[in-house]
Amino acid sequence: MNGAEVWIVILALGAGTYLIRFSFLGLIGSRRLPEFVLRLLRYTPVALFPGIIAPLVLSPAATDGQFDPARGLAALFTLGVALVTRNMLAAIAAGAVSLYTFLWLLG
Amino acid sequence: MGATTAKSAFGQGVLLGLPFILVIVPFGALFGVVATEAGLDLWATMGFSALVIAGAAQFTALSLMGEDAATWLVIVTALAVNLRMAMYSAALVPHLGAAPLWQRACAAYLLVDQTFAAASATYDQRPEMDLRAKLALFFGIATPIVPLWYVSSLAGALLGASIPEAWALDFALPLTFIAMLGPMLRTLAHVGAALVSIVLSLAFAGLPAGVGLLLAGGAAMVTGALVETWSERRT
């Protein structure tokens, strides 16, 4: 992606995100959304993140798309810590430590 | 207790916002580092953090740009990650809806996960607050959070330029997403949505970059909503 395209993404994403934030507060007011729409909105991050994660973990670009046991184990360990602690930063820290440990042990 | 003045509400807001520094600073710095590693220059990295101010969507855009997905797909997918903020916006209408337009416009810019969580919890606990106090509280909460998001992204971007490849920072992106995902998997509906997203994104791996994710995400959203409806009927 070249510099101009990156800025198109930044400006469109910035404007779009602002409109989402401004939507009800600024434009729509207190009209209620249908219950099913609210439900769909609730699941957007949890519906998208695993689909982003799975290909990155199973075929990392750094190993030319070949599955890498060290990266795979670090991903599993990070998920475990995230599920148990429910703490994003603890999981990121555990993920970094486990990645370097597994890379050192298996690499 | 007498009526809360706007000034003291602002101070209380700042105090409520302070603990989030512990989340904002490392997360913002990580974005700066990963964005720099992905090849964004300092201005583009700061453009993201100042105009988008939404970590999850910023990381989503980075990930899709790394796969050379079409520009419109990067935008649509990252915006989908931010759709939850429409719920935040709707939830604040009963509290801030009567404020002048320019104040609502400023509040909208500062409406992030942390400011929403702290403000809405306080509004619920203290229904006696008037409009001025509620606004002052909201701006108070944002005061330690949003500027530090810029500063930590900047620090990360400056740092990222000097980190050697041996650090395997390529994998910071998926690990960050896993760390964001874990705490979200609270119910059967969330787990069901996540599983559908994994299976379909892998099944659609042959489609042009980003298309499979959008299809998988759409199906996973519907799955989550349907499982939630179904589990409510059972109870």
TrEMBL record, chain A:
Keyword list (alphabetical) reads: Membrane, Transmembrane, Transmembrane helix
InterPro entries for the chain: Brnchd-chn_aa_trnsp_AzlD
TM region positions? 6-28, 40-61, 73-106
Protein name, as recorded: Branched-chain amino acid transport protein
> Which species is listed as the source?
Palleronia pelagia
Source lineage: Bacteria, Pseudomonadati, Pseudomonadota, Alphaproteobacteria, Rhodobacterales
Automatic annotation (TrEMBL), chain B:
Q: Does the keyword Amino-acid biosynthesis apply?
A: no
One GO biological process from the UniProt record? L-valine transmembrane transport
Q: Which InterPro entries match?
A: Brnchd-chn_aa_trnsp_permease
Q: Which residues cross the membrane?
A: 12-36, 42-62, 69-89, 101-123, 135-152, 158-181, 188-207
What does UniProt give as GO cellular component?
Answer: plasma membrane
Keywords in alphabetical order: Cell membrane, Membrane, Transmembrane, Transmembrane helix, Transport
Indicate how the chain sits in the lipid bilayer. Answer: Multi-pass membrane protein
Give the UniProt subcellular location, in the record's own words.
Answer: Cell membrane
- The yes or no answer to whether the keyword Membrane is present is yes
Pfam families assigned to the protein according to its UniProt record, in alphabetical order: AzlC
Q: Which domain of life is it from?
A: Bacteria
Q: Give the UniProt family note.
A: Belongs to the AzlC family.
Task: State the protein's name.
Answer: Predicted branched-chain amino acid permease (Azaleucine resistance)
Specify the species: Palleronia pelagia
